[in-house]
Predict the structure.
Amino acid sequence: MPDSAMRVSCNLFADHLEHQADIEQFWLAELGLPAAALCKSVVNVYSKYSLKKRANKLPYGTCALAVHSTRIVQTIYGSIQEYGGFDRPEWLD
């Protein structure tokens, strides 16, 4: 399967800005994807009301993986059913 079938975008926080490149590389390495699969990251700034309570809770932020392959998505759904011990045939159509 070509790597272009998968894209990843990072959701970072204001305190991640100075480490943005390292965090993006972390997610690419974890997912085994090339740099070409990385989309633009989103950086959430703190509101003046937040009191910055989130600090150090998600050291790598979060990421979203988009899969543009029906075969892979159906494999994921099949795996979820197998691990969960239930059957939803409509997931595999």
In short: Residues 70-84 form the longest helix (15 residues). The first strand starts at residue 6 and ends at 13. The CA atoms of residues 74 and 92 lie 6 Å apart.
